[in-house]
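User: Show me sequence and structure for the first protein, then do the same for the second.

Assistant: Starting with the first protein.
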Amino acid sequence: MRIHYATQTDVGRRKDRNEDYFGVFREDAPGLTFFKEGALFLVADGLGGHAGGEIASKLGVSIVKDLIKEPPPEPPEDPDADAGYLPVIRKYIKQANDNIFRTNQELVKGNRPMGTTMLAVLALRNKVFIGNVGDSRCYLVRAGEIIEKTIDHSWVDEQVKLGLMSKSEAESDLRRNIVTRSVGNHEEVVVDTYRWHMVPGDVLLMCTDGLINMVKDVDINAEFQKRATPAEIAQRLVNRANENGGKDNITVIVAHISPNLFQLMVTYAVRFFRKHWQQLMWTLLALLFGAACFVVGRFSVKWL
C-alpha cells in the first residue's frame, strides 16, 4: 500500500514554544502487529495556558501509539458494528486520559491541570478509522474537494449545533480555541469515532486548530485543487496560517493514499520544474547556443 505523506509543525507567530506533537507509524514500526499495510497518524495539541501542555501532548502520543502492538482484530460480521479497529483506538485514547489525569492528581499542584487534544487516524487499504477528542481535525479530500471532516469539541462548534451561531460566525469568533473536551483534564472522557471509506487517490489532512482557526475551509480546499505534492501542500497551509496571524502552534500532516502512479510522476515532475526551472532554462539555452555554434562552424568550414 503506497502512502505518500508529509509533516509540518511550526510554533506560529504568537507562542514561545510548540505544544503540538505528532507521530507517524508505518509497517516498519518496532513491535507492529495491529495491521499489515497502512499507517497510524497521531496529532496532539497540548492545552495552552495549562501546566505542561507540551508534556501532555507527547505523553498522549507515546501511549496511544502502543496500540500498534495489539493483535489484529477479527473483522466484524456487520461492517457498521462498533467492533474491530475502533474499540482499540478508543481504548488507548482512554488509557492516555487515565495516565495524564492521574499525573495531574499526583504532581500538578496550584496550576491548571495539563491536557491535550488527541486525534488518532488509522489509514488502511480502503478504510480509515478515527478516534478524536478535542479540536484537532481530520479531513478526507477526494478529487480536490473536502468530502468528510471530524467534528470539533469546541465551544463555538456546540453553539453551531444548537443553532445559536452560524458556521461563518464560528469561523471568525474569538472563542474558537475554547475546547469542551480534552484528554487528561477529567477522570472520564468520551471519544468520538469515525469510519470512512477511501478510494485510491484520496488525501487525508490531519491538523491542529492552529491551522483551522487561521485558514478557512474554502482556502484549505483551494490548496488541494492545485497539482502539488504532500510536502508542498503542508508547507503552503502552514504559511497561510502564519500569514493570517499565526496565533497558535500549527501542525499539519498530508497523506496521499495509493496515488495513481502516472499522476504522481507528473506531480513530482512539475515540482522539479518549479524548483529548478531557471537552471533548466540556462542549460537549455547553453545547449542551443552550443548547437548553433556547431552548425555555424560546419558551414564556415565548407564555405572556406
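Switching to the second protein now.
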Amino acid sequence: MSLTWQQSLKSFETYLRLEKSLSENSVEAYLHDVRKLESFFDKKGKNTSPSDIVYTDLKEFLGWYGEENSNTRTQSRVLSGIRAFYKFLLIEGETDENPASLLESPKIGFKLPQVLSVAEIDRIIEAIDHSKPEGHRNKAIIETLYGCGLRVSELVNLHITDIHDGEGFVVVTGKGNKQRLVPISGKALKEIEIYKALRKHLPHIHDENILFLNRRGRRLTRAMIFTIIKDLAARAGIAKKISPHTFRHSFATHMVEAGADLRAVQEMLGHESILTTEIYTHIDRSFLRDTLIMFHPRS
C-alpha cells in the first residue's frame, strides 16, 4: 500500500534531519515545497498518493507555480525540494522511478551579491548608539559578522565557549552541524569582551552559554539581527538593500580583493565547493579591467 502525503512527509522529515543532518531552516524549506505540491493536487480534486504522481503532473504543477511566482530563483528552489522528495521516495522503494528527474530548471541569471565598502561598514559601526544598553552588543555583532564572515544562523548560535581568545579563533557550527575554525580579529574580541562584561547586568539569563542575548536574556532570533542591521544602515544613510548576509559577502570580497588564497577563503566561509567561493572573483570589475590593460598584448 502506498504511503499517504502525511506519512511520506513525516518519513521525509526524519530522513532530512537524521540522515542528511540538515539545519532546521533547510528541513522546513523542503517540507514547505512538498506541501505546496500536495495542496495543488488537493485543490484540483486529485486524490492521489505521492507515488501516483507522474512527470506530466509535476509539469502541470510547475506551470501553475510559475504563473503565481515569476521569480526564477524561487521556482528553482521549489523544484529542488520536489526533486529531493522524489529521490527519497525512490531510495525508500515507494516509487519505481523518479518523475522529477526529467524536469528542467528555470534559467537563472548570474546575480552578484550586494557588497559594502570598508567605509560603509565603518559608517554603520559609527551609527551605533553606545548610550543604549544594547549598543556594545550590536557593535560586537557587526564586528563578528564582518570579521569572521558568518552566516546569521551561525552568529545567533555562537557559544561563549566557542571563542578561543588566546589562539584568536572561533569554533563555528555551520550547515549540517559541520564545525570549522575561523580566525577572529583582535577588534572583534575586544568588543565581545566589553559586551560580556555588560551582559552580566541583564535581569535574568536563560541561555548562559549563548553569546548574543536579547534584553530578556534569551538568544537573539535571525529576524532580530535583520532588524538591528536595517536600523543601523538607515541611521548611517546607506540606501543599499542589505542584510546580515551582506557582511559575509563583504568579508569574502574584501579578502579576495586583498589577494587572499581562494582555498583559505573557502575554508573560512565553510563552502562545500570552491565553485561557490569563486563568485567573489567576479566582483571587483575595476581590478579585472586594470589587469587586462596591463597584461593583454593588444591593450
